Amino acid sequence: MMQLIFTKGAGKHDRMDVIVDGLCTNSVQCPKQGIIPHDMLHFAVEATLQRRGFIIRTLEGDASGFRMSSTVESDGVERLVEVLQADGWAGWTSDPSALLELYRVTCEARHCAPLSIGEPEILAVREHIHRLTTAWQSTKIGESMPISLAI
User: Fold this and answer.
1) Is the pTM of the predicted complex or chain greater than 0.85?
2) Residues 6+ apart with CB under 8 A from 91
3) How far is CA 97 from the centre of its chain?
4) Does the chain have fewer CB atoms within 10 Å around its N or its C terminus?
């Protein structure tokens, strides 16, 4: 069994522990950003779209952290996470078509291929993010929010 355990910190960071077969294989400090942790956004994107990005690669044992080698799919996932994170900072008000255009422009600027997605996928990811946000907001400082998953 694989799990991500997000723990809400009292200071400037939250923490994500990666649990594989009952053992913590990696811990990541997540700077607070006013919305759910960046790596929780990764989970929402990767789990909803069934795409391989930072979370899946970490669960597979890639321990290189922030220096992971570039792949077409994981680069596309990272750009989408960035766009959704910016939308979260703006209050989750962007129209899905505007998010797709921003995603396309972001990918162009970063010289990576965008994932083949449309408005239904954006709406599904956003819904997943909203469910995680509700759970995270009810998590108190020092408490943890486990997320089980399979790869």
Assistant:
1) yes
2) none
3) 20
4) N
Q: Where are the alpha helices (DSSP H) in the chain?
A: 38-49, 54-59, 72-89, 96-109, 119-137
Q: In sequence order, which residues have a C-beta less than 8 Å from that of residue 120 and are 6 or more positions away?
A: none
Q: How far is CA 151 from the centre of its chain?
A: 15
- For 64-98, what is each residue's pLDDT tens digit? 555 556 778 889 999 999 999 999 999 998 899 99
- In the 8-state DSSP scheme, what is residue 64? -
- Tell how far CA 144 is from the center of its chain: 17
Exposed/middle/buried for residue 66 (C-beta within 10 Å: 0-12, 13-18, 19+)? exposed
Q: Tokens at residue 33, please?
A: 């950003």
Spatial contact of 3 and 145, defined as CB atoms under 8 Å apart? no
Instruction: Say if residues 23 and 32 touch (Cβ distance below 8 Å).
Output: no
Q: Which string of DSSP letters, residue by residue, matches 22-48?
A: TEEEEEEEEE--SSS-HHHHHHHHHHH
Q: What backbone phi and psi angles, to 5 degrees, belong to 44?
A: -60, -45
Exposure string over 123-136, b if 16+ CB within 10 A, otherwise e: eebbebbeebbeeb
